[in-house]
Amino acid sequence: MGDDGPRVRTYLLVYVLLLGLLGATTGLAFLDLGGAGAAAALLIAAMKALLVLLFFMHLRGSPRLVWLFAGVGFYWLAILVSLSLSDLLTRPWFSSVLGSRP
Amino acid sequence: MNASFPPTEPYATLEEQRDSATLGMWVFLSAEVVFFGALLLSFVSYRISYPRDFDVASRQTKVALGTLNTGVLLTSSLFMALAVRAARKGERRGTIGWILGTMSLGFGFLAIKAAEYVLEIQDQLFPGPHFYLPGADPGHARLFFLCYFILTSVHALHVTIGLGLLGVLAVRAAWGSLCREKGHQVEIAGLYWHFVDLVWIFLFPLLYLLGRHPPHG
Amino acid sequence: MTIPLGARVPENYLTADYRLRSWLFTTDHKRIGILYLISLTFYFFVGGFFALLMRLELVTPAGDLVQPETYNRLFTMHGVIMLFFFLVPSIPAVFGNFFLPLMIGARDVAFPRLNLASWYIFNLGGLLALASIILGGVDTGWTFYTPYSSVYSNSYVLLAAGGIFIMGFSSIITGLNFIVTTHKLRAPGLTWGRLPLFVWSLYATALIQVLATPSITIALGLIGVDRLLKVGIFDPALGGDPVLFQHLFWFYSHPAVYVMILPGMGVESELITTFSRQRPYGYAFIAGSSLAIAVLSFLVWGHHMFVAGQSVFASLIFSLLSFLVAIPSGVKVFSWTATLYKGAVSYATPMLYALGFIGLFTIGGLTGLFLATLAVDVHVTDTYFVIAHFHYIMVGGMVMAYLGAMHYWWPKMTGKRYPEAWGRLSALIVFVGFNLTFFPQFLMGYLGMPRRYHAYPPEFQIYHVLSSAGASILGVGYLLPLVYFLWSLRYGAPAGADPWDATGLEWRTPSPPPTHNFGETPVVTEAPYAYRLREDEGGSP
Amino acid sequence: MDSGFRIFPERGSTNAEGVDDLYFYLLLVSFVFSALIFILVITFAVKYRRRPGRERAARVTPQPALEIAWMVLPFALCLVMFVWGARLYVRIYEAPPGAMEVYVVARQWMWKLQHPEGSSEINELHVPVHRPVRLVMTSQDVIHSFYVPAFRIKQDVLPNRYTSIWFQAIQPGEYPLLCAEYCGTKHSGMTGRIVVMTDPDYERWMSEATSQGSLAAVGLQLFRGLGCSGCHTGAADARAPRLEGLFGSRVQLEGGRSVVADEAYLRESILDPRAKIVSGFQPLMPVFRGQLNEDDLIRLVAYLKSLAVREGRPDQP
Question: Which stretches does DSSP call E strand in C186-315?
């Protein structure tokens, strides 16, 4: 069994990238990007998460089954969030006042 | 495979046992994703409903300490990855060393987090009866800090559990019973540790950074 | 593990060790299944006792037997105990634990020690729930809606919610164990296409257990925070949203309905094939529909919230998605029915339960359509129509399947046969009692009788009396098996390895099975349910 | 409210007729399918029962086409249910123009129902027949649910929020009003009645009902008493937005979004003015959360709505 996982250099590279992204997200937070600020922060967080998943957690090189279960949680979470927000965000859409306007 | 270290029931081979344990941890982590996700959903939906008050409140979090803590946790993840690597190669001293390194950073994270809590309680930001935050709707600001304290303390609980796991492994590595099984227990614990890091990667921007920029208008 | 030659009693998992500690520290999946069986039987009768008291109160329109406070506690504790401490674990924890490894030719589940831990965790949760009963009970309804549960209720919410919170972990562990076991420990040759349908349904159930349970853990945990800190995340006074609690609650509790019914469907597939000696009609459709139900079950929770203040748009989405669940459920009913075609149908007790299951599940499923239909749901939600609907699914479906499984596998679990005549009689009593109890509730519901009413307008009395009469019959139907099963432990005839002439690996080992299940690991070479057929007459419906 | 034996509830509203038609369709589909299943199960179980000489099953080749048809056909019937149900459902949330309004405040364990003209009732609501009535509802404590079985309407009543439905009675009479969401100890006692009257009867009842002035008039006093009129002067250079003609209009918010000024918006803007800042104004208004009870809020909202009526709908009384 020769899989000792990624080389030390890879780990260090990933680590430096992670710290870089941390700096970027903190720096960006102090700029006024309007609505894009939240999107940027979440995008960077997703990139960091992906790095951790792929390299530190060895998802790269794992069997498909492991990929499946690594994805399943996020998929179900996406269902929970999207359908819950489909309620919250659309509550003002049907304002019964509209019907009663002349 | 080392004959002196047989697989336990119900497995025929150590390889099978190792694969099962890895899969089991990933299945568990998928449950954890939903667990933290459900909490985050509460936070996000209030953030959407009350963006202005949540901006005001989130500016009260200690962003310097938070950033430092993120760095600490990311570094601990690197150490953990190196511990797994050492365990896989059967390097006992390396394994113990990196595990202890990971643990000390984990304790560091908890210490910094505790310091933040102390500062926040001094600033009357704990959403109890003494809560006080001018400039925001008191109810909504309480909601923010309620979410903040719940999310971070549940996360800290996970860090603590991770530290417990690593502590056990460090002792077992010192006894020498770890490396012969190609370190799969270190790997499983590593998955958990990295996941806790991953959760923080999302908590940090959501709690500390959104709304950090000076308000316009 | 070979049976020692010359031993009078062949060693099996029951006789391997008689000491109490050998049970309390066992990691044998079969013994853990039995431990669960004992716990669940206890909780079932506790929950049933509350139900009987409720039905007794409801015989008269005035609330004259118990105080309203008491009545509210009765229906709450009935719901909490029955749902979380009987129905959710029921078939997976008892028959799943016992038979999953046997059916896939494994020596145990993937994580035997975790499996034992799950039983202890379950009982810890149960003890908290019982403690809340003994101290005075909970009056929030099993749904724990905020802000009533978090701010207004003066009852032992923290204990009961804590019990469910803890029990959730045992559910997650069981699910996790089943997923890994099914993936990793199948016998050589046992491909996914050869798995028994019960295993497919357990796998689908396990997915739901793992992925849905965390949501209610959070929802109840947050109620706990509110009650402890006196400041809460769902508190409207702060701008908190009680509807958000309902989202988190139903994101678990709707899929949980499928945790309760999917294993029942799996049992049903086993029973129908065994007692028709027929191959399942459309194996792939039945197996696939289990997975489809598991996935779809997560997309429909909002149909509990059509009048809850959810947005109209979200209600439209949830209504449409809810109808999708009708497809796989319909496929199952169709396949069971078609499996009977040209079979060799016997009327053994398990089959009576199975046939009853088809009828009751059909009614339960069809009335589900009423509740998915938006405008009709507005009228019937939170009335006895809903009560009747979900009892048809959970009692008419799941409990019937549970009892069917009990009779089917009892000979395997204990090595003893139960008295068949008594079995058939009790199946009949349960069927009649059940319909008498719950069918009138459909009528009452459409008339507008709200649920959770301690006193009610006199016009509903006739229906309530019928319902209460049925409940007493049902009670007898449930007590009978308890008596004759216990009787059979001592006096039952020996069962033999395969009393039903069934296929499946669990019947290829002695009854009761030896500690390590199989003398040697079985090798599977053919499709499941390969019943020998009469070749003279063929055809298709 | 007779206590005779019934198998079908009375129909008291336009909505009830629509819902019942759909209900019959559902019943029909259910009867057809359950009859089909029951007959097949019983027939097969009897015809293919195990007996000497028939100990084994015969080979049956499954027909995927049959399975597919069984999936498609019922789903088509389900889609009819969905569309039909959705149309009726959307309708109960869209009150017709000129609907009479009633404000509902629920609390453990009673209903308070207020007419805009000023009369308020406890656990009893008098309404005229054949006129749409729109309910604006909120709760002072836990979640309740406004349920009138004869009208086939039900809507949860939530704290800190307005929910709304409407109905139009078709027959004078008395209909039970129930709380359908479990709300605590005396949940089953939280009942009342809707009294539907002919127009002349209703006019008479209205003239006899006691009233301390219309909600809007009391609201105006509150508006002045709380100092709102200091800023909301209605002048072009005022520090606060003009309120005349506000209700029902689209408000341009800071940050580019816009919102329809419905009751929920008015309520939020009084309690938490900073939540939605009107474009071009400073967040100067004090927060009224915790200082106003639901009754006062309703009076203020009614007053603000009356401003819109005067501006935009001069034909209305």
Answer: none
Q: Amino acid identity, residue D204? A: R
Q: What is the pTM of this model?
A: 0.93
pLDDT for residue C10 is more than 60: yes
Angle, in degrees to the nearest 10, between helices C242-276 and C400-414: 50
Give me the architecture of the D215-312 domain, per CATH. Answer: Orthogonal Bundle (1.10)
Burial of B86 (0-12, 13-18, 19+ CB in 10 A): buried
Angle at D139 between CA D136 and CA D142, to 5 degrees: 145
Confidence of residue B71 (pLDDT cuts 50, 70, 90): very high
CATH 1.20.120.80, applies to B17-209: yes
Per cent of chain C over pLDDT 90 is 89
Among 2.60.40.420, 3.30.1490.100, 3.10.20.30, 3.40.50.2300, what is the CATH number of D1-45+63-211?
2.60.40.420
One domain for residues A57 and A67: no
Q: What is the ipTM of this complex?
A: 0.92
Are the C-beta atoms of residues D162 and D263 closer than 8 Å to each other? yes
Angle of helix B63-89 relative to helix B92-122, nearest 10 degrees, comes to 160
Core vs surface per residue A3-38: b (16+ CB within 10 A) or e = eebbeeeebeebbeebbebbeebbebbeeeeeeebb
Could you tell me if B104 and B197 are in contact, meaning their C-beta atoms sit under 8 angstroms apart?
A: no
Mutate to test the interface with D, among C378, C454, C463 (most CBs of D within 10 A): C378
CA gap C245, C251 in Å, rounded:
10
Helices and strands in chain C: count of H runs, count of E runs:
17, 1
pLDDT of residue C455: 94
Question: Looking up tokens 């003002």, which residue turns up?
Answer: A92
d(CA D317, CA D314): 8
C327 in Cβ contact with D71 (< 8 Å): yes
Q: How high does pLDDT run on average in chain C?
A: 93
Residue C59: which pLDDT band, with cuts at 50, 70 and 90?
A: very high
Closest CA to C455 of D178, D123, D145, D150: D178
First to last CA, chain B: 68
- Confidence band (pLDDT; 50, 70, 90) for D317? very low
C 198-257 residues inside an 8 A Cβ radius of A: 207, 211, 215, 241, 243-244, 247, 251
In C, minimum Cα distance to A96 occurs at C312
Q: Which of D232, D203, D208 is nearest to D220 (CA)?
A: D232
Q: What stretch(es) of chain D map to CATH 1.10.760.10? A: 215-312
Distance CA C496, CA C16 (A): 19
Q: With a CB-CB cutoff of 8 Å, which residues 105-144 of chain C face chain B?
A: 106-112
* Whole-number Å distance between alpha carbons of B98 and B83: 5
Torsion angle, CA of C261/C264/C266/C271, rounded to 10 degrees? Answer: -150
Q: Do the Cβ atoms of C251 and A80 come within 8 Å?
A: yes
HEC letters along C121-175 = HHHHHHHHHHHHHHHCCCCCCCCCCCCHHHHHCCCCHHHHHHHHHHHHHHHHHHH
pLDDT band at C4 (very low <50, low <70, confident <90, very high): very low
Phi–psi pair at C87, nearest 5 degrees: -70, -45
Cα–Cα distance, A101 to A94 (Å, whole number): 13
Helix (H, G, I), strand (E, B) or coil at C522: coil
Could you tell me the two tokens for B44?
Answer: 């996000």
Q: pLDDT by residue (tens digit) across C88-137?
A: 999 999 999 999 999 999 999 999 999 999 999 999 999 999 999 999 99
Spatial CA neighbour of C231 closest among B39, B126, D107, B57: B126
| Chosen from B15, B18, B42, B49 to mutate, greatest number of chain C CBs within 10 A | B42
Which token pair is C474?
Answer: 């049902």
